[in-house]
Structures are given as structure tokens and as C-alpha cells.
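Chapter summary example.
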Amino acid sequence: MRVPVPEVIAPVDELGRVHFVGIGGAGLSGIARIMLGRGVVVSGSDGTDSPTLDALRTLGARVSLGHQSSHVADVDTLVVSTAIAEDNPEYREAVRQGLRILPRSAALASVMAGRRVVAVAGTHGKTTTTSLLTVALQAAGADPTYAIGGDLSATGVNAAVGASELFVAEADESDGAFLVYEPEAAIVTNVDADHLDQWGTPEAYAVAFDQFADRIDPAGFLVCCVDDPGAARLAQRQRDAGRRVITVSSSHDAGADVGPDALAGVTLWSPGDHFLADALAALAAGIELGRDPEALVRGIAGFTGTRRRMELKGEVRGVRVYDSYAHHPTEITGDLQSARLLAGEGRLLVAFQPHLVSRTRIFGAAMGQALSAADEVLVLDLYLAREEADPAVTSRLVADAVALPEGRVATCTLADAGAALVGRARPGDLVLTLGAGTVTQVGPEVLRLLDA
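The structure predicted for these 452 residues follows.
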């Protein structure tokens, strides 16, 4: 459900008691953490229990399982996840009472108010780059508030209130949320068409990034990674408009303001050009914010990753298992490049779960082509998320495009994926589970079966 953004977004100290419908999600849980850290009375509900809900309870939130109208009897503001349906009883009761109702984007803008915001946008790499910038600034003596779309491996949390006026935030383009913010500075990692169910065409998607960049404070700056043609074009348009733009690249040949030499001698937590580009963007932004370059580099060198972004789940009987959130052809290509380097002489076995009917309809063949860089591939059933099933759009669209010999690519269910991978794996292999849905459950199952 799409809740309209109010014309005037009240700052967090004017929201009163706040209730989150879908509080366990990556976006809403982070905002709830920040509000709790600011002394706001927070409650929330979700469909299933989770460690995230337990952590919010520990911080003082009143969290309920299931959705009931009585949960909003004593609140002033309702924050709603896009995953919530219009017939949700808490939403309907809030409408009946005339409560202030905010989408995720407006709630994040509310906690940003009065802070120096650095917003990190892009089709791919937002979470990693936001995480890197946060850790780098911390190492350089800043203590930013941060809101990230994934948990930092080092802290286990996706958001926290800092003591400084800096606020580092992941800015999501999927539903237009990034067009609500007015940052002092921004990073754009890439502009690679996605979420066309929202934007319609690649051209409209690119225009949205221009609109986002136009919202940056005129005295601020924009960091763009010119490894990506879309971001390179955005950088040029913004420079032509008089914006201060800093370009970064993982290549020595791109003529960027900040190149790979800036991190020469640093071993990152994971190999791969896309991760190097993310780290360079974080470094460039930190320098522009006036922080010591050497301290920023120390922070980047000590970065241990973000959960679900090439995350090592474990190793049993010589088989290493990684999990990553990649769900777009470009992301799959980048993560398979990293995984191949990590695998060394071992084979690379991939289990991929396509995410969204609309994305698979448009990019299914390209996903399969990207997966062809693995040694063996399992394509799981489609993860529907917020869309209805379409009989014409299945995982076969992906599997049929994988260019591997017969017997080295197959389709299977989520329930069967763990056993199927264990049946194929041998010592020295690397197993990688990919996708934005429930495929993250497969890695632990593989390790359990190997151990058994």
C-alpha cells in the first residue's frame, strides 16, 4: 500500500506516540530504533516474531504479533510499511480516528530533521556503501546517526543514534522514497534500470535520479561512481548544472577524481570491483565532509561487511557457504565475480531465487546469462513478494537462459534446495545463495545437512 507523503513533515519531537505497522522490516525497524534513541514512545506490530522484534522490545518498544485495531488506541502517529494492505485493521482504525499516517520515507525524513544528512542512493550497492561510510566516519572521530537497509556485521544492528549532527542514510528509489529527502550531500553508486513496476521505463527511472540530485543542498556535493554509465551521465549533467561532483572509479583508466590508488594496499572484507567502488565512494564522501583520509581508510580496512551482502554463513567439511542479496543481473554478475575469487580452485555452486514477477518478466533472461559464470546453478521458485503470480512468468525464464551443460542447471523448490546443494557439493567448493527473498534460509540448512 502506498501512503501519500504529507506536504509538511513534522519533526520527530512533534509526532507524539508512534506505532509502526510492519515494525520488523529492514526499513521500519531502523527508524523505530532511532526514535527510541530519541526518547519517543514506540509501539509496533508484525506478522511473525524475530530477533529484530526482540531487540526492539529490549530497547523499550511495545511490540505485538498480529494486527488488531486495539493496538492503535493510544497512539498519535502511524507509520506504515508498503507491504501492508489497505484492509489492515490498524491502518483502518487510524484512518477512522484521523491519526497522522506516514509512509516509511516521511518517517525517515522526520528523524532526519535538523541533521546534516548524507543520503546514499543507487540501484545496487546502497546498503554496502552506507555501511562503509558509517564505519569510516566512526573511525575518523565522527559519531553519525545512521539508518541502513541491512545489519552491520560488527554491531548486528541497522540503525543507531549518534552524538554528532551527521546523519548517514540509505535512500531507496524503489518506491520514490529518495525524492522526499533534502540531503546536504549524496552518493549515487549507479543508475541501472530497475523497479520498472514503479517507474515504467528506464528513461523515467534515470530522471528520478536527476530529481534526487536536484534536492541536494546547493552548497553540498554529489559523489558518483563513473564505472556505471548511468551514474557517469548523472555526474556530467549535475556538473553542467553547477553542482560540486566528485567522481570515483575502481579502474585506473576512467579519469575519475578518486581512483583505486586511494585504497592501495588495503585488503577489503570481500574481493570484487563493485565492492572496491563502494569503498571509494565512501572514502570520497568522508573526505569531502572534512574527515582525515588516513582515519577513513583505517575504518574501511576494518569493515567486516553487512549481513546478506556476500556474508559468510560458515564452513563444514571443506564447503564454504555464502549468502547475498543480489536479485538484479548486474548484482548477480558482481557477486559471482567476488565468489569466483573467493572460491579459488574450488567450484562455485549457486542457488538463486528470482524476486518479483515484474522483475523476472523483464530481466529473467539476463539473470540466467549472469548465472552462467557459476559451475552449477539451482534456480528456485519465484519469490512473489508484493505481486500476484503470473503463470507465464516462472523460474524457467531464468533457468532456460543459463548457458551451462545439461545436468549443471536445474530448478527446485525452496524446501529441496538445501539437500540438492549438499548432493552436489564436495570439499573445496563454495556455495552461494542469492536473492532478496527467503533463499537466505538455504545456507544454514546446507551447513546443518553437511554437519549431519
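To summarize the output: The chain has a mean pLDDT of 94.
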